[in-house]
Design brief:
alpha+beta
């Protein structure tokens, strides 16, 4: 089993667990997005910890480690969580994203290779199928599909979340045109957009010069405009709600000692074990 096959197997098992036990992910997502009451960006970092612990507690054939910023980002990789299939012993890493329903960054393209490579073709529209195949096989596009991305797409207004996995293989096989578009609404720089045979939007490579910041470069898509190229790991949208008790718990925890934390931890572990007794296989 390859690492990518292991990731696909994990997503399938994740989906199976949620299908049988939707309350588990609803609780976890509610707690994660409650963090937005503390800070607009707090939920993103805590989502990495929360999903990693969700895997450890409820997905019995898998274990996970939150590697986050310390290990992988120091080595200029994008993954946040390392997952081990305890049966096959194959390990793989995932990049966890928490984005609003709309633009979604799939890869930062840290070395800024994608955009300059596409520009080197000196065409406003690349439609030759052989050239498109060459692009996907190139060293510059090595990252395309090599990163296992698990995005938590949320609609804050309606309090719902959808864990949507971009289908890189389908995107590759369906691309029929790559078109250069100049700066437009909300964009200061040009972008190469990928379309299928029916002229449906798939994804895009944003401006990759050294002057571009992380939000202006890399591989992006749009969850609203590229729905056929996503698979939902949660079988669609999951409603969530704010857990204000959790906010109070954090505030008390920040001014209490490790002794108090140990006592609180005992109660939390007991609560998780009680949840496990009701998990459907």
């Amino acid at each position: 089993m390859t690492k990518h096959e292991a990731f696909n197997d994990f997503v399938m098992r994740f989906n199976h667990l949620i299908t049988k036990n939707p309350h588990l992910i609803k609780t976890t997502l509610s707690n994660i997005f409650t963090m937005r009451l503390i800070g607009n960006k707090t939920h993103g970092d805590l989502a990495e910890i929360g999903i990693s612990e969700f895997i450890n507690q409820f997905m019995y054939d898998f274990s996970s480690v939150h590697v986050g910023k310390e290990l992988y980002r120091a080595k200029e990789h994008e993954e946040d969580i390392k997952i081990i299939n305890e049966i096959s012993k194959v390990d793989f890493s995932i990049s966890l994203k928490a984005y609003g329903d709309g633009p979604l960054q799939l890869s930062t393209d840290k070395n800024s290779t994608m955009f300059p490579f596409l520009k080197s073709f000196n065409k406003d529209a690349i439609i030759d199928i052989n050239q498109i195949k060459t692009i996907f096989l190139s060293r510059e596009f090595l990252e395309f599909g090599n990163i296992n991305v698990l995005p938590l797409i949320y609609d804050e207004k309606n309090k719902k979340c959808n864990i949507m996995v971009f289908d890189f293989a389908k995107a590759k096989n369906s691309t029929a045109a790559i078109k250069l578009e100049s700066e437009g609404k909300g964009r200061k720089h040009p972008t190469f957009r990928f379309f299928d045979m029916e002229k449906n939007y798939i994804c895009e490579v944003r401006y990759g010069d050294a002057a571009a910041n992380a939000l202006q470069r890399g591989l992006w898509t749009n969850t609203k405009n590229a729905i056929p190229y996503f698979n939902s790991a949660t079988n669609g949208w999951i409603d969530y709600s704010d857990n204000t008790v959790l906010v109070k718990l954090f505030s008390y925890a920040l001014v209490s000692t490790a002794k108090g934390h140990h006592e609180a931890l005992k109660s939390l572990i007991a609560d998780i074990e009680e949840q496990k007794t009701n998990v459907k296989g």
